[in-house]
Write a structure and sequence with these properties.
Layout (H helix, E strand, L loop, with lengths): L15 H16 L5 H13 L3 H8 L7 H28 L2 E3 L9 E4 L6 E2 L10 E6 L2 E6 L6 E3 L2 E2 L3 E4 L4 E4 L2 E6 L2
């Protein structure tokens, strides 16, 4: 009789606790709408038939498996972070220079950019020669980006094409920011 120090090459068996965790992750995924009913049922069958822990991991890899208290903490952090961003934006908006909207009877659009012939000339390196235009259309003010290099934004969102603007909106041309005000 010989003794052998060889280790078994058979993979570790899945425990009931591991299987229950995987099933809980699947249930949560289905409850939150991240898994369809058919996907839930198929994965549940695969969890029950799994023989190795890596098989379970593959079935739940795309699902969040955080504890409920961790989700609440992270949700709270997201809410506070969002609030501080809104507070910072509001604080900065009040401190921005005002850009007076032209009178409603203005027939031509207000061209904005570095070009001296523009109605609003902004001498800043991040402003294009012909950066944007502000036009009255159907009783509303419309701000249109004219293909500027550094972009035009309204209330922190980049303008793709055109955007309706109102009194109090924050507008940026490149890195120059203003708060719109009715004239």
């Amino acid at each position: 009789m010989t003794s052998s120090f060889e280790f078994s090459t058979y993979p570790a068996r899945v425990t009931d606790v591991e299987r229950d965790r995987a099933l809980d992750a699947l249930k949560e995924g289905a409850a939150t709408g991240r898994l369809s009913h058919d996907t839930f049922v198929r994965r549940m069958e695969l969890v029950l038939a799994a023989r190795r822990p890596d098989e379970l991991a593959a079935l739940t890899a795309d699902l969040r498996t955080e504890k409920p208290w961790a989700r609440r903490v992270l949700g709270g952090v997201e809410a506070v972070s969002g609030f501080t961003m809104k507070l910072r934006r509001a604080w900065q908006a009040e401190r921005l220079p005002k850009l007076l909207l032209p009178g409603a009877e203005t027939p031509r659009p207000l061209l904005i950019g570095r070009e001296p012939t523009n109605g609003l000339r902004l001498s800043h390196d991040t402003v294009s020669r012909f950066h944007a235009e502000l036009r009255r259309q159907g009783g509303m003010w419309v701000l249109r980006d004219l293909g500027s290099t550094n972009g035009t934004s309204v209330n922190g969102r980049r303008v793709i094409g055109a955007a309706v603007v109102r009194d109090g909106d924050q507008v940026s041309f490149g890195q120059m920011s203003f708060r719109l005000a009715a004239g």
